[in-house]
Amino acid sequence: MKTYKIACIPGDGIGKEVVPAGQEVLQALAVASSRFTFDFESFGWGGDWYRAHGEMMPKNGLDALRNKDAILFGSAGDPDIPDHITLWGLRLKICQGFDQYANVRPTRILPGIESPLKRCTRDDLNWVIVRENSEGEYSGVGGRAHQGHPIEVATDVCMMTRVGVERIMRFAFRLAQSRPRKLLTVVTKSNAQRHAMVMWDEIALQISKEFPDVTWDKILVDACTDRMVNRPASLDTLVATNLHADVLSDLAAALAGSLGIAPTGNIDPERRYPSMFEPIHGSAFDIMGKGLANPIGTFWSCVMLLEHVGETEAAQTLMAAIERVTANPALHTGDLGGRATTVQVTQAVCAAVSR
Ligand code: IPM
Ligand code: MG
After folding, report:
1. pLDDT in tens, 301-329
2. I need a surface site. Which of 104, 196, 230, 239 has the fewest CB within 10 A?
3. Are 39 and 62 in a shared domain?
4. What is the distance in A from the centroid of ligand 2 to the CA of 282?
C-alpha cells in the first residue's frame, strides 16, 4: 500500500479551520480506496509562531518539508503583523525556496452555484490561469533609502529572466495542449512596460512554435478583464505574470461564484521539491474561529494534490463528491448566501466520497 507523506501548514485565520477539514476528507478517501494512506505532519507556523519566535517559520523549516510528497497550506496573514512579513516569511519562502514556479488556478462554475454574470452558463466559464510564481513583480528585488526624508526612494523591480519566462510559457502551452480546446491566451502589458513585457511576448511567440497544435492569442491585461466578463467562453487556458494573474484570478473566482471555492497549486513541474496546494481565499479574519469558512477551496486544492501525486481516480472521486455537495443549496456556506457550517460541508463531502 502506498503512503503519501503530506505536510499540513494551516497558518493563520480560517486556514486553521479549512486545513484540518481537508485532512479529514483526504483521510476519508484513503479509507474508501484502501489502496493508499496518508502520513500527515502538521506545522504550527504563521502568526502565532511569529509572536513566540520572532519569525513565521524556523530558519531550517524547508528541511522538514523537503522529503514530503506534497504540502497542504491554509493561509498566511495576521491582523497584528504587517502583510509583507507574513507573506515573505512563510508562503513565499516556501514557493521560492522550492522553486514552485508554476501557480495553477482552475476556475469553473460548480453545480448549484450561481455566477454573478447574467448571461454566463456553466459551459461558458471553464478556465485555468497559469501564474508565473517565481519572479516578475514578486521577485523581491528593490529597496528603500533615505527613509523619512523628503528624498526617500523605494523600488520594486519587476525582474524577468529568459529562463523564467521560457519555462512558464512551456508549462502553459503544455497545459493548454492537454485540455480539449487546446487554446491559450497570453496576457501581457507590453504597450506600457516596454522591456520585460516585450521579452515576455517574444518568448511566447518562440515557445508557441513548439506547440503547433495549440491555438493562441495575446491580450493586454486590462482588456482581458473585459473579455472575462463579456466573452468568458472565448477563454480556456491563460498565462500571466505573477501580479497580473494574482488580480485576474480573484476576478475569475468571483465570476465563478465565490473566492471561497477557488483552489490553487504551487507546482514544481520538475518535481525536485514538494509542490504546495492551498485555497486562494486568504485568512479572512472577519469570520475566523466561527466555523463559517467555506472548505470547498481546500477540498478542490486536495483534488489538485491527488492529481499531482498520481491518484487520478481518487481525484475524480473527490471532485464528484464536491460537485454533489455544492449542488445542494442547503450545504452552502455564507459566502454563497447559505447558512451551512464548515463542519456540515466537510461531513457531507466525507459521506459522499465514502459512498
Ligand atoms: C494569492 C494571494 C497572495 C498573493 C497574497 C495572500 C499575498 O492573494 O495567492 O493570490 O498575492 O500571492
Ligand atoms: Mg491573490
Report:
1. 999 999 999 999 999 999 999 999 999 99
2. 230
3. yes
4. 8
- Asked if residue 355 has pLDDT above 90, the reply is no
Among candidate residues 210, 225, 256, the one where a domain is terminated = 256
Q: Which helix (H) or strand (E) holds 261?
A: none
Q: What is the mean pLDDT of the chain?
A: 97
Q: Find out whether 133 and 96 touch, Cβ atoms under 8 Å.
A: no
Residue 139 CA to residue 111 CA, distance in Å, equals 38
**Domain termination residue (choose one: 256, 282, 303):** 256
For residues 57 and 160, membership in a common domain is answered with no
Does the pTM surpass 0.85? The reply is: yes
Ligand 1 center to 261 CA (angstroms): 15
Ligand 1 mutation target, pool 87, 250, 304, most atoms within 8 A of CB: 87
Domain that holds residue 197: 115-256
Spatial CA neighbour of 56 closest among 70, 43, 46, 71: 46
Question: Which of 246, 250, 298 to mutate for ligand 1's pocket (most ligand atoms within 8 Å of CB)?
Answer: 246
DSSP state of 81: B
